[in-house]
Amino acid sequence: MARLVEIIARALVSRPDEVRVTEEVNGKNVVVKLQVAKEDIGKVIGKSGRIAKALRTVVKAAAIKQDLMVTVEIIED
Predict the structure, then answer these.
(1) Which residues contact 67 (CB under 8 A, 6 or more apart)?
(2) I need a labelling partner for 30 at 20 to 30 A (CA). Which of 4, 18, 57, 58 fits?
(3) Which CATH homologous superfamily contains domain 2-75?
């Protein structure tokens, strides 16, 4: 799941080399943490959180095929 989030995030931001994705697995629960450059945070969240919501929807759809519960967290510094 981390790889999927990374691919999508790198396509959205203007500084793809600063995209950092970490994954914490606890059984069937997975937490994917996404961190981007400070000026790119708005591009990942989007207006009213629409892009973030779409990103989470795509990841959850992919997780269903693997019988996982995935949470995507966007970390701001």
Answers:
(1) 28
(2) 18
(3) K homology (KH) domain (3.30.300.20)
